[in-house]
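Morning!

As promised:
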Amino acid sequence: MTVSFLRRRVFTTDHRQLAILYLFLGLAAVIAGTLLSLLMRLHRTWPALALPFYGVLKPEDYLALVTMHGTLMVFFVLTIVPQSAFPNLVLPAQIGATRMAFPKLNAAAFWITLASFLTLLSAFFVPQGAPIAGWTSYPPFTEFAAAGPGQGAGMDLWIIAIALFCVAAEAASVNFLVTILRLRCSGMTFRRLPLTVWSWLVSSGLTVIAFSALLAAAAMLLTDRHFGTSFFLPSGEVLNGIVQRPGSGSPMLWLHLFWFFGHPEVYISILPGMGLASSLLANFTRRSVPAYGLMVVCTLLIGVLGLGVWGHHMFVSGMNPYAGTAFGLTTIAIAVPSSAEVLTWLAMLFRGRLQVASPLLFTLGFLSFFIAGGLTGPILAQPALDAYLHNTFFVVAHFHLVMAMAGVFSVFAGIYYWYPLLTGRLLNEMLGQIHFWISLVAAYGTFFPMHLAGLAGEPRHYAQLAGPVTTFANLLPVERGITWSAFLLAAAQIVFLMNILWSVRRCSHVDANPWRATTLEWSPILHPIVRNGPYVYGPTAAPQQDFLPQWATSEPRVRSS
Amino acid sequence: MPATFTRHQVETERRDTGYGGKPPVDRRPTGGGGGDENWDSRPSGRRGPREQLVRFRLAMFSGLAGDFVFFAVLVSAFFVRPSSGHISAADTFISDWHPLQAPPILWINTAILLLSTLTMETARRQLFHEIDVMEEWLGLGRPAVRRAAPWLIATIVLGLLFLAGQWIAWEQLSREGFFFSSNPNSHFFYLVTGTHAFHLIVGIGALLFALVAMFRFRKVELRQIAVDCTAWYWHAMGLFWIFLFALIVFFQ
């Protein structure tokens, strides 16, 4: 490994190389997060099982697994892959630019993200281990080192990691915002932007706002822990029979601040997937996006409304019930633009000329999860129903389908779709389809039964169901099924990794535009001039060509089908 | 080609002298090339004198928008904390929030910071003075830099004075027994003033950078960007301080 290799591939400001680095970081995080979740499943199903080199998991270990699984997946997988890796990969190309607006800032963002990742993982190796407060880190549990194992040094590392991540995410987003707004090539007007770029525009704006709020909240939590302030510290806190430092702070304030970040975060991670779904459905049905303007407006609306729904995470937290009603209404309101997008996608499928390939399959998987998980959204958005369902596995099922699985499937769609950009080769189609079908079935097998467990009242964050209290013992068969399914889901990803490794050397080369796509990342021209919209599919003047790419020099002569 | 925005009487008169060509300056909105020229239809990197400047400014403003949210979140504690007491056993509401008498020196500090904003703006405008900038661009001298430097130094001095004043305010409070951890109001006071002071230290770093950049950067555009972005950052910090100051003094 020579110095020049390092300079070209690692210590570089080239956005394509940074995208690869981000993808590797995301891969490391998703492997770590998945292993943690499998340990959780093992423990829930066989609580007495002794792990090799470790022994039996203690309840606090289970909580540490929950915390680190959530933090890794939300920040280092569902945020950095759709919101950092993919834009680095294709954003400049899609707007006809050759570079980012601020390449050094962009590279710095990656390195700070990596520092954040290492800081977070180091929490496992400090005395008492990783934090156990969940990825939301509600006070007062996070206020004192005495609150539990891992709430000392581990919790501090968690806060520092999150603060670093906030800085990195904002730096990256500022770069994306300026790139989109100022570096578009000639003719790339806003009405000709691909919907992925619109999504990144909105999600970058959300990132700047949401992560600033989290950064400030993290700073206040840190001063609460170490400098004697009491922003989030309630009065009369008693831990293990000892009355703690008095304060009359408000844990509710943390909840508000955290979810003011936390809900936009959901859209930060899913909006790029929605933009990608529109692009891919247009490509693989060979039809234009029928309501481009509507899709753009919906994306913007989701961004704006997404900033005003955070209270729906807090219905049972002691928040004023009237506020709960208001947040319920805004949450149901955000279902309107989301549904408009979903209906548009369904309309594109209807009578579309489907070209079945793995990117399309994963997009359909995204769509399926987005609908299945999305439908429980308006249920949970009603304070009365949420009072029962809150903190049950119903919620776990909801967000794992609508955010995690939909997000991950859109990430897979993106990787299968853009793989030729990186390697000049397609991923193996058969392995791709095997990967898809097993993942789809196993993902539903893992997360769908959680609805039933949740309806039966099974709580989250409980280390085990068996034991002296047998209330939920009759759910154990469901739990076992979920565990087997989760292992199958993880195993299916081995197919994917094998496919990546195998295809990078073995698959045959493809031409520059293997999907016959219209957007500029497939353009053979470095400095294109754009004359038509992003999704012009249909019969053209040229024979054997059913699309008009954005880099085409001729005027659009397509008759829309 | 640098951006300019002031036009002198002399410049206006010189425009149609009839001798040779006009200096290639950016006369907005068309950019100097004639009525129907649209910079945006050119390839990136050749979109006129303001292209890079606008790019950096946009980044600065997006970053400052995030910073604004950061301060707004800190301020939210100021409004939530007074009402977050508890109900005692005797069924009375007990709050540990005590109003804080802001040290009077804050008024002087505020005046100093406002003054520094003025000096900063003066420095920034020097760098866009059309005659001076054209002279620099043609390599005939450094009039813009020479005129801006004293104002920039004045801004640094005033910024340091403000920080010293804040330090005195903290000293006074701590002598009266109010520390960071004393009561909810002092938590808030020290947190926001401390965070703001940290931002100003970063700002002074940026000012020093801009000062060096003015003399070291070879391209006029980059000198303008260094001073311009520092100036907007500095103005934003002034604006944030006015909000924080009003909050601390008038909304106890």
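The radius of gyration of chain A is 24 Å.

Hope this helps with the figure draft.
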